[in-house]
Amino acid sequence: MPITPRSDDMLLVVDLQYDFLPGGQLAVAGGDQIILLINRLGRRFENVGMTQDWHPAGHISFASSHSGTQPFEVMQLPYGPQVLWPDHCVWDTHGAQFSADVELPHTQLVVRKGYHEVVDSYSGFQEADRRTKTGLEGYLRERGIRRLFIAGLATDFCVNWTAVDAAAAGFETHVIEDACRAIDTGGSLAKAWADMHAAGVRRIVAGDIV
Ligand code: VGL
Ligand code: ZN
Asked: Less packed terminus of the chain by CB within 10 Å, N or C?
């Protein structure tokens, strides 16, 4: 289905940071392969936003914060099950920076998330406690944005949770599949697409945007 960008659309680019790219602490396979495509997509959108995973050292989502655990294990935390990760996207480290290959100079908004030590936040809208908001929804409403086009890393975590929350908030939400790459741990990618489908998220490819 061809879709033409409008002035009430935003391209929301998720977590294109060194730690999620090959060589990073939580590298997503092929993560570097989507950057040029996203740069090209970005030129089609008047409104571009980015999210940035942004954790304090010792963050609760890090396996290193819980003795006797390993990365990719799941741990029960007060707000629900949490996959434990290698340390990543720590404040003011190189790994937390956006890739220098990202060329989206007209980006209007950067939303940081995951900055509270005891709660993770995959979603750009709210933390994993499902209560603490980032402010993104209010920003988009004040800007008159009605449709969101989401690309970036990782399909099954931050893209997924951001898309599901966007749809729940009433935005017409599209995930650009070939402009995303997944971690895929413990069946997370299949579950993510099922969750996004159930939430009414539309699964498109970059070629649909004309
Ligand atoms: C992400 C795991 C941990 C993501 C962030 O950007 O998808 N995944 N933190
Ligand atoms: Zn993270």
From this structure: N
Chain segment 71-109, per-residue pLDDT in tens: 999 999 999 999 999 999 999 999 999 999 999 999 999
Question: Looking at the domain assignment, is residue 81 inside a domain?
Answer: no
CA of 145 from ligand 2 middle (Å) equals: 26
Average pLDDT over residues 123-141: 98
Q: 149 in ligand 1 pocket by Cβ < 6 Å? A: no
User: Across-strand partners of 210?
Assistant: none
Alpha helices (runs of H) in 88-187, residue ranges in sequence order: 136-143, 160-168
157 lines ligand 1 (CB under 6 A): yes
Does 158 contact ligand 1 (Cβ within 6 A)? yes
Token pair recorded at residue 155: 């399909």
Residue 67 placed within a domain: no
For the cut 90, the answer to whether the pLDDT of residue 1 exceeds it is no
Mutation test of ligand 1: which of 12, 13, 26 has the most ligand atoms closer than 8 Å to its C-beta?
A: 26
Q: Which atom of ligand 1 lies closest to the CA of 53?
A: 5
In a domain, 174, yes or no: yes
Please compute the mean of the pLDDT values over residues 152-177 and round it to a whole number: 98
Tell me how many domains the chain contains: 1
